[in-house]
Design a protein that fits this description.
With about 200 residues, the protein is mainly β. The chain is elongated and about 60 Å long.
Length: about 200
């Protein structure tokens, strides 16, 4: 049993104004719940019901040889919410690289990529999201490493990679994240799938 249940607005106010009171937090992405440990005094276990969203891109082929696919999730500057990325699932038909980039000159904070990725709330009464998901399947010049890369690994061919962020990755208003699947050795027929889940606080 939890000690208290807060609304998203109540939690946002406490988190922003008294961040040092929170000892830890974690997510139940299926139920759309955030749990936290808070002081002062005896450690208190709390719960927040937070709007949860998910989006996916079906099997998609690169446009040409030596190109790869990049997905972008962007939090507009006027959204008024914090995006908490909790889960990314990718698959490639070849053993290629999977990378996550934060907002830099390579990942513009105010522009979207060419194609649109549809997403929806995980409950019927989930508020409309201001988040924008997009993709390009013809990228050939995104730096493989360097500044702004927070995760990089080699995928196994046809093996889904379920990358769960237990404490989430926060995207503030006016910032974005890019996720790339593939590298500059891709074949012309290479394909990948992409799914992403997040909360909005």
């Amino acid at each position: 049993m939890v000690d208290e249940i807060l609304t998203p607005n109540q939690f946002r106010d406490q988190w922003q104004n008294f961040p040092d009171l929170f000892e830890a937090y974690w997510f139940d992405t299926i139920a759309g719940k955030l749990y936290y440990l808070r002081r002062p005094g005896p450690v208190l276990l709390g719960q927040v019901s937070i709007p949860a969203y998910g989006g996916s891109d079906p099997l998609r082929t690169v446009a040409a040889i030596n190109q790869f696919i990049v997905y972008r999730i962007r939090n507009p500057a006027t959204s008024g919410v914090r995006l908490i990325i909790t889960r990314i699932i990718v698959t490639s038909t070849e053993a290629r690289q999977f990378r996550i980039y934060t907002s830099t000159s390579t990942v513009p904070t105010a522009t979207d990529r060419t194609g649109t990725i549809l997403f929806k709330g995980k409950a019927q009464d989930t508020p409309t999201s201001a988040t924008v998901c997009s993709f390009d399947n013809n990228v050939a010049n995104l730096a493989i490493g360097g500044f702004g890369v927070i995760h990089i690994e080699q995928l196994q061919a046809l093996v889904p990679r379920d990358y769960v962020m237990m404490t989430g990755y926060e995207i503030l208003p006016g910032h974005a994240m890019d996720i790339s699947v593939g590298d500059t050795t891709d074949t012309a027929a290479e394909q990948s799938t992409f799914s992403i889940e997040w909360l909005e606080i």
